[in-house]
Amino acid sequence: MSTFAPDGNDQELERLRKENENLRRQLGGSQETEAEMPKPVPADSSTSEVTTIREGDITLRRLVQRIAMILQSEMILIMFYERESGELIAIPPSYGLDEHKLQHCKVRATQGITGQVFREGEPIIYHNAETDPRTRKDLINLFKIQNGICVPLIIEHRDEENRIVDRSTIGVLHACNKRHGEDFNDEDVRLLERMAKNVGSIIANLQLYREVMKEREELAQTFESLTSGLLLVSPEGKISQMNSSARAIFRVETDVVGQPFPQVLKDKSLVDFLQSGLGGKEAPPFELFLDFHGVERIYAVQGALVRSDEGRTLGYVSILNDITEQKNIDKMKSSFVAMASHELRTPLTAIKGFSSTLLEAVDDNIYGPEEQKEFLGIVVSECDRLRRLIDDLLNTARIEAGESLKPNYTRFALPPLIEKVAMVQNQASERHHVSVKYYDTMPETIIGDEDKLDQIFTNLLNNAIKYSPEGGDVIIHAKMDGTDCLFGIQDSGIGIPADHLQKVFEKFHRVNNEDNRKIYGTGLGLFLVKHLVDQVHLGKIWVESTVGEGSTFWFRIPSDLDIEQAKKMND
Ligand code: ADP
Prior knowledge:
- Strands 3-2-1-6-5-4 form a six-stranded antiparallel beta sheet, with helices on both faces. The protein has a five-stranded antiparallel beta sheet with strand order 8-7-11-10-9, with helices on both faces. A five-stranded mixed beta sheet has the order 13-15-16-18-17, covered by helices on one side.
- It is elongated, with a radius of gyration of 41 Å.
- It has helices at residues 8-28, 46-71, 99-102, 112-120, 186-225, 244-249, 261-265, 268-278, 324-361, 369-400, 414-428, 450-466, 514-517, 525-536, 563-569; strands at 73-82, 87-95, 106-108, 124-126, 148-158, 164-178, 229-233, 239-242, 286-292, 295-307, 313-322, 410-413, 432-438, 445-448, 472-481, 484-490, 540-546, 550-558.
- The chain folds into four domains: 6-222, Beta-Lactamase, CATH 3.30.450; 227-322, PAS domain (Beta-Lactamase); 327-400, Helix Hairpins (Orthogonal Bundle), CATH 1.10.287.130; 410-570, Histidine kinase-like ATPase, C-terminal domain (Heat Shock Protein 90, 2-Layer Sandwich), CATH 3.30.565.10.
- The longest helix is centred in the middle third of the chain and has 40 residues, at 186-225.
- It starts with 7 loop residues before the first helix and ends with a helix.
- Strand 7 and strand 8 form a beta hairpin.
- It is an alpha+beta fold.
- Residues 463-464, 467, 491, 493-496, 504, 509-511, 516, 521-527, 551 line the site of adenosine-5'-diphosphate.
- Adenosine-5'-diphosphate binds next to helix 12 and helix 14.
């Protein structure tokens, strides 16, 4: 168990440990040699907790044996009151009784001698169990008992001046069957009462000890299961607590509790933050950038000084929350705004430029029909570009809102569609050559949304051309895989770094490097394409790429799409 108990818990544990030790000494007396005594262990190590509980158990067992010896009693039995059930239950250790048998022994607090002693807090001596009416409904019946004494187990709480401030009965102690056929007397009762005080106090201590341990364990487990990183440093500059999330953040694999924190954490900004926090200067929350093997993560760090009730500084606690994704989205949103404004302004500038040129020239007839046609053609294609951008934005918003892009399923001819998109893109750029490579005979017709499949091809081909600024071949690979159609759009362009291969399909995600920055885009195209493949056509899309060599975007769709299922997905 990791150790987190900077406050009263440790002191309480230490007090209990000492008390147990004293009792053990008192009891062991001269019979015990030093060598037999369990060695005291440091108060805050986990073995000490186990040892102290074990020591308490051993002490109690010896005490029970000693009572049996002193009273010349054949049986000794401890019964502990359980509040929830209202019963007195037999607890180990016992003497002269089968402990397995004892496991299920209980007596209601309202019944028998056991109940009466517990309720009234006064001892009872009985000389003939068989005829004594008080032994009815008591355990005494179960075990061949002739005579005995039952005394209450009382614990007393004293103040500093040793005055009793509180007293409570926690159970009873039975001594039964005096040896050699003799009977117990009043002197035995007084002796047993005195020894019951020790028994009561050990049991109470063990109980408390277990409770404190349990609380401590629960607290530690709670910290361990937090998804935020939790770090507690001591005023001496050591790590007092580091939960599993924090260990993962700092790539710490061994137990570092007790080690100087600057040595473990290394990051200067965090070390400064903790040091000024420990010095009493509450630093404002800050953002921690950690880079492990080129992967950067960002954490929001908040800290607070931990003080005892008396105002003593116990340490400085910090919580670390991973905000990398949030930061990335923020970054992408702002770069999207910049991109979108650029994307909107570029076609608008062209439209405005060419249309006003034509307008100014109307009266003077400067431009002939060919030129006018060319200018108007540019205006129309820029308008299309604007419309595409607006459609992309609206479609993204629709997908975001959980709406589908309203598929329109039909059976349509596949090869002509592929040829058409290839031809259109071929015309779009002179420096690129788009071709189709068939590996299998493709089905004549397939079921799907023709427009949306066109959109998928157009988008991927557009990208292939856009991200191959040097020009080159763009190949559409077409194959069959079972009943699925498999397409690959291959370019020889700038490529995509490995850590972006999944992310390019996220909305607004653009590779932010030297090559890519010069090529404008909104980061929405592949997000929409993925939706059209996955959702509309129940297919799958992925990309293979090598930076500097090129990329191939692969997607597969069923040739015999189950319309009912597809409609359900898009409802
Ligand atoms: P946009 O092209 O408008 O930025 P996309 O969603 O179409 O948005 O693409 C997302 C990102 O994926 C691009 O910004 C680019 O970094 C990368 N990408 C897409 N296609 C290619 C390609 N064929 N080659 C290299 N990078 C690509």
